[in-house]
Design a protein that fits this description.
The chain is of the alpha+beta class. It has a domain of 125 residues: Domain of unknown function DUF1214, C-terminal domain (Jelly Rolls). The chain has 3 helices and 10 strands. A hairpin with a 2-residue loop joins strand 1 and strand 2. Helix 1 crosses helix 2.
């Protein structure tokens, strides 16, 4: 066997093995660094300058253009508050109250990690576009069909069932949130019914 062929074969094998194993290894390592708060999850190292290569890999795939940790904390939810996967054929109530941050938003993403196409172009909610009661509490309906009041689309009305995820962004959070990410009061996600 010619030496150049051996080198080429080694390079191809390395690329194939790396492509297959790196995502699994990164997912396993990052899962061990997960901070959980109800259905919401975050990583202490997202946006941090000392994030390891595995966190950086996951961010490069799922969270491009993320802000620095001192500016924003990102919480993600792929399940409801009872631990069941979020799916577009179900209707959910998202309930919450004031959060110790300068501004916050919640965005729905499809299984491809992109915004969910829908006729109403409803992609995110924030404290600026919600009806909030005097105590600062809110309820948002998550569903494919638009409902009155606060609503966020989980898919187009005639789309088939698909998984979706929510990202909660806390911009300029207080020191209390940084020091107590597992105990801070974040919105609850309750399943109402499924089609």
């Amino acid at each position: 066997m010619k030496p150049w062929f051996t080198y080429l074969l080694a390079i191809i094998l390395g690329l194939v093995i790396g492509t297959i194993t790196v995502p699994q290894i990164a997912g396993f390592v990052v899962a061990k660094q997960t901070i959980e708060n109800g259905p919401w999850q975050t990583f202490d190292k997202i946006g941090a300058t000392d994030a390891d290569m595995y966190v950086r890999f996951v961010i490069s795939v799922r969270g491009l253009f993320g802000l620095a940790k001192k500016e924003t904390i990102y919480f993600n939810a792929e399940t409801d508050s009872d631990g069941l996967s979020l799916t577009s054929n179900c209707t959910y109530n998202l309930t919450g109250g004031p959060m110790a941050t300068r501004w916050w938003s919640i965005t729905a993403y499809g299984p491809d990690h992109y915004l969910i196409p829908n006729p109403e172009k409803s992609y995110a909610i924030s404290e600026n576009n919600l009806d909030i009661d005097d105590a600062g509490r809110f309820t948002v309906m998550l569903s494919r069909q638009q409902s009155g009041g606060n609503w966020l689309a989980t898919g187009a009305p005639n789309d088939g069932e698909q998984a979706f995820a929510l990202t909660l962004r806390l911009y300029n959070p207080t020191a209390e949130i940084y020091s107590n990410m597992t105990g801070v009061d974040l919105p609850q996600i309750k399943r109402e019914h499924c089609a």
